[in-house]
Amino acid sequence: MAANGESWLSCIKCGQKYSISRRKYICDRCHGLLEVKHTFTENFTEEGFRGVWHYKPLIHPSLEKARIVSRGEGATALYSHDSVSEFAGISGLRMKHEGENPTGSFKDRGMTVAVSEAIRLGATETVCASTGNTSASAASYSALAGIKSNVLIPSGNVSPSKLSQAIAYGARIIDTPGDFDMAMKNVARIAENSLDYYVLNSINPWRVEGQKTIFFEIMNELKECRFIALPAGNLGNTSAAGKAIREFSELGLINDIPEIISVQAEGASPFYNLWAGGMEKLEPVKASTIASAIRIGNPVNWEKAIREIRYTGGMVVTVSDREIMEAKRVVDRSGIGCEPASAASVAGLKKLVDEGKIDRNDRAVAVLTGNILKDTASIMEDSARIPMETFMRELLA
Ligand SMILES: *Cc1c(COP(=O)(O)O)cnc(C)c1O
Ligand SMILES: [Zn+2]
């Protein structure tokens, strides 16, 4: 048995164990996904850190503190606003704003852990496929650590506001033909052919460790929380939610298990099909939605994610682009604001209330995954501006 505070990689399908000093993402024996496991010490939190690393004993207990590559991610705010509560039909709806992270999305929580691990392993280059936010975050943290980042983007399919972050942070941008799912396949090709490139997509199990802290913070702050809704693309975050809930429950830190609500866009809903259809295997789809962060047809983490939805007794739901943009407008006009994909969480809760599956008095949190400044093209399309002269005429009338 491992000593306290040790970590190892474990295959979610066959249980095969690997040392964390191996750069591995999938199992040699069965091609299953790997997850990080720890023997927990008595302390669950680390003095002197706030945000993600406050939970260091639960995410990477043996890492030397000097190796941490951090920009102070996490410890984001939980908002509530009457207009959003009213729109969704849930009186005490809370919004966890992950857009307040350093590069503007929850990806920073996973990236601080994965890039710290890259440094510990002596990697000199990182690589990821991205619909935008992963690349912005990977580029920032790689630069901070002094290593090179390589970003594979689906050509012509990434929001300029996200891509400009990756460019500015100095990433090497590699145009790949096709969609995100093709770019992800190309990352696998690179990883198979060279150990020099450390993969920063959420197939990297350390990303999930960092992202668990979104849910640790929610469970810590809200003792009673029945539902946690989040937009679902590559399903790393759905996986992180379930792992966080399982660990808090095993450690005796919560009594009730919050139910995960994964929300997909109608045009990119292979996970919904899997869950609703009771299928054995996820069937990839061709993804199409205005919400670029969840425009993913072949999510790599589906096997972890479906296990977590079932464990928490949660649900998967789809929403249309129109419903997403309606919810975004309400969140934006409340003064809180978020990117389109993030609003899917609010839209999904509203839909479940309308269908009678969630009650007005249930306690629920919607995770707003990204900042309002991401993916701005959709806002500019319907911006009505008035000429100064018209304004003055109305003022003087
Ligand atoms: C990455 C991302 C998602 C999707 O998360 P997954 O873990 O891939 O399911 C949703 N919203 C935003 C803003 C993102 O950046
Ligand atoms: Zn295996």
Report on this structure:
Helices cover 39% and strands 15% of the residues. A six-stranded mixed β-sheet has the order 4-5-13-10-11-12, with helices on both faces. It contains 14 helices and 13 strands. α4 runs parallel beside α5 and α8 packs across α10. The model has no long low-confidence stretch (mean pLDDT 94). It binds pyridoxal-5'-phosphate (PLP) and zinc ion. Pyridoxal-5'-phosphate binds next to α8 and α12.
**What is the percent of helical residues?**
25-40%
Strand order across the biggest sheet? Answer: 4-5-13-10-11-12
| Average predicted confidence as pLDDT | 94
**DSSP strand tally:** 13
SSE order, one letter for each helix or strand: EEEHEHEHEHEHEHEHEHEHHEHHEHH
Rounded to an integer in angstroms, the radius of gyration calculated over CA atoms is: 20 Å
Bound molecules: pyridoxal-5'-phosphate, zinc ion
State the end-to-end distance: 81 Å
- Helical stretch count? 14
